[in-house]
Amino acid sequence: MPIPVAGEFAALLSAYLEELHRQHASPAVYALARTVLPRLFAFLASRGIESLKAVQEADLFAFVRELGNARTRQGEPFSAWTKSTYLTAVRRFFRFLRSTHLLVDPARQLRIPEGQRLPRAFLSPAQAGRLMSAPQNHTVKGQRDRAILEVLYGTGLRVRECERLDVTDLDLAASTLFVRNGKGRKDRV
Helices marked H in the chain — which ranges? Predict the structure, then answer.
């Protein structure tokens, strides 16, 4: 359930979200800001801080400690990766505030822990074959699903990149696929 945000916090959150929208930030960055920043604001309010101008570096370190004690919905402690993404969102927010001359950035010295990368899993040829044969080829929807799976598996595209594909992005004669707005908002063939 979303944490309610009021007063100055709400106004600055709204301004920040507008800036993310203006910069065409990814949906993930936008969603992270909407999740993390209200949690930060609630934490600051619990410490009697009603203005972001009053936030000190020590308050942010206390928030980091609070994240260390936080639990997921399943009761598990936050992973290092989750804490890292939360702190990245906080630093981006304070960087935005600094760039708009609203305050000095107390998050400058905030260290972001390295998230532990998960081992990459690869499909075996047998698993890939089962995956490709799962859609029903005798239906239009099944043919579409098979084509999507073939593109994802054969090219290594990210799901969001595949979602943005258009029929005009495919050039069968040249055997090329144009990917718009890929990672880092870069186009590639």
Answer: 7-22, 27-46, 57-69, 80-99, 125-133, 140-155, 159-163
Buried b (16+ CB within 10 A) or exposed e, 137-153: eeeeeeeebbebbebee
User: How many whole angstroms from its chain centre is CA 186?
Assistant: 17
CA atoms within 13 A on the CB side of 85: 15
In the chain, the amino acid numbered 134 is: A
Spatial distance between the Cα atoms of 76 and 79, rounded to a whole number of angstroms:
8
Tokens read off for 65: 């400690």
The gap from C-alpha 116 to its chain's centroid, in whole angstroms, comes to 17
Quick one: 182 exposed, middle or buried, by C-beta within 10 A (0-12, 13-18, 19+)?
middle
Q: Which pair of tokens denotes residue 187?
A: 């186009």
Phi, psi torsion values for 101, nearest 5 degrees? 65, 25
User: Which residues, in sequence order, are bridge partners of residue 188?
Assistant: 179
pLDDT, tens digit, for every residue of 34-59? Answer: 989 998 888 988 888 888 788 888 88
Structure tokens at 2: 């979303």
Q: What is the pLDDT of residue 121?
A: 73
User: 80-99 and 57-69 are packed helices; what angle lies between their axes, rounded to 10 degrees?
Assistant: 160
Neighbour count for residue 107 (Cβ, 10 Å): 19
Amino acid at 156: G
